[in-house]
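Molecular record:
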Amino acid sequence: MPVQLATAPDPARPGVGVVMVSTWRVGTSARQRATVDAISRVWRARAWPDAGLLSYSVAIGEDGDSLLHYSQSSGEEAYERFVGASRDERVAEIDAAVPGIERLGLGRYELYRSGASPAGDTRAPGCVVVVDVEFQPGEPGAAQIREGWVDAVFEALDTDPHLPPGGISAHFHLSTDGTRVLNYAEWESARAHIDALAAAGEGIGSPTEEWARVRAYPGVRGSTLTRYTPAISLSAG
């Protein structure tokens, strides 16, 4: 199968059973771009590795160091087939082009809920905001706690009288190890997200009871926020 090239993935695409998320650290903004170029060259020079691997996407961190990797597969077996058959040779060629890449783990997630703008909205995301929320491990009913928190976020969004104008979509993923929620949020631009944070004063969201419930939700240990620029999204042509 040939390789199809786009700028960003569709986080809500049908047929996705598992999402793999990882971060690479490469050191400089020049090396970020060189790594993306190497990934594009290596992947496009080969046939698509497995029909069950639905997409592989990379976004560039605004820190001038990190790269976000977001892969969609039909299931874990499909991803493991790709790893066993052709991942190592691709990684070796990328490392030859950009030596010294530091790879920081791999998280496995399942998409739980997505929220997007109304049909007909043709805005392309210029920024991806990844919010990684950590929950207390080993809590009874951990899955229900995480799902309840995401549902509370949607209730807060639905009742917010002053949502910021630059948001496009939000896609909430639950980690398969039961400890995290990852929100992959698409924005028009990094500036739109920065302005939204400044306007709200305490994260995204108006000072409503619903947002207060989200911020004080039991079981939440903490969260991190990172902004990225979509760079490349590869899929079977």
